[in-house]
Amino acid sequence: MNTTAASTDPKAFSSFAEFYPFYLGEHSNRTCRRLHFVGSSLALACLTMLLVTGKPQYFLYGLLCGYGFAWLGHFGFEKNKPASFKRPLYSFMGDWVMYKDIWTGKIKL
Which string of DSSP letters, residue by residue, matches 27-58? Predict the structure, then answer.
């Protein structure tokens, strides 16, 4: 299957294993990846605050941080639309796999 961003509809993938190379292609810009990393880190901090304080607004803050930084990366630097618009679950999973891959050195920041 051709997984280039320009020719592939994210809905065409039948598994996350097929989707993830496409996802990485949608994150080839280093600044975009860095913004995703910052947003994901802040989202985890907000989740921690939610668990520590019990204040539900931290859930909203986490969503705003996670998606806000990611979308800034896509619209401002990657110049594409986030795949989350068409494959929200796979995109969410891809965010966290990429986050892990950055921490483990598989993907450069």
Answer: T-SHHHHHHHHHHHHHHHHHHHHHHHH--THH
Tokens standing for 69? 């930084």
The model's pTM is 0.87
- Using alpha carbons only, what angle is made at residue 19 by residues 6 and 29, rounded to the nearest 5 degrees? 55
Chain position carrying tokens 């496409």: 22
Query: For 78, which DSSP code?
Result: I
Structural contact between residues 78 and 28, judged by C-beta atoms closer than 8 angstroms: yes
Handedness of CA 100, 103, 106, 109 (dihedral sign): positive
Tell me which DSSP letter residue 65 carries: H
The answer to whether 32 and 74 have CB atoms below 8 angstroms apart is yes
Residue 7 pLDDT? 60
Rounded alpha-carbon distances, angstroms, from residue 101 to 11, 61, 94: 24, 24, 10
